[in-house]
């Protein structure tokens, strides 16, 4: 039996180029998982992160990570090495 908590959601696996990104934290964006500015007027702010090289990242979607915006395995997922 898997330890995966499917109720918590799975991370979003995505390959990104070097650069600065803003992970939506309000859920209103029409460009998820990235911020499109729709948080204006709410208490939420996007989570900024920068990548130095093109790489595959795992963006938390359960909201329980301690390393936002990246998955830390709280949902039960273990990113491949
Ligand atoms: S649109 Fe959701 S945080 Fe900006």
Helix count from the secondary structure assignment: 0
Write down the domain tally.
1
Query: Which spans of ≥5 residues are poorly predicted at pLDDT below 50?
Result: 1-6
Radius of gyration computed on alpha carbons? 13 Å
Fraction in beta strands: 15-25%
Enumerate the strands of the largest sheet in spatial order, edge to edge or round the barrel. Answer: 1-4
Structural class: mainly beta
Give a count of the beta strands, DSSP E runs of length 2 or more: 4
| Biggest pleated sheet | 2 strands, antiparallel
Q: Give the bound compounds.
A: FE2/S2 (inorganic) cluster
What gap, in angstroms, lies between the N and C termini?
22 Å
Helix content: under 10%
Shape: globular
N-to-C order of helices and strands: EEEE
On the 0 to 100 scale, the average pLDDT is: 89
Molecular structure report:
It contains no helices and 4 strands. The chain has 81 residues and is an all-beta fold. The protein has strands at residues 12-16, 19-23, 47-51, 55-59. A two-stranded antiparallel ribbon has the order 1-4. Residues 1-6 have low confidence and may be disordered. The protein has one domain (1-75). The chain binds FE2/S2 (inorganic) cluster. FE2/S2 (inorganic) cluster (FES) binds at residues 24-26, 28-29, 35-39, 44, 46.
């Amino acid at each position: 039996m898997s330890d995966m908590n499917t109720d918590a959601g799975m991370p979003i696996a995505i390959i990104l180029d070097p650069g600065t990104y803003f992970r939506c934290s309000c859920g209103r964006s029409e460009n998820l998982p990235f911020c499109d500015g729709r948080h204006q007027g709410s208490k939420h702010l996007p989570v900024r992160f920068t990548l130095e090289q093109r790489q595959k990242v795992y963006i938390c979607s359960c909201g329980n990570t301690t390393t936002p915006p990246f998955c830390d395995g709280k949902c039960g997922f273990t990113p491949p090495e």
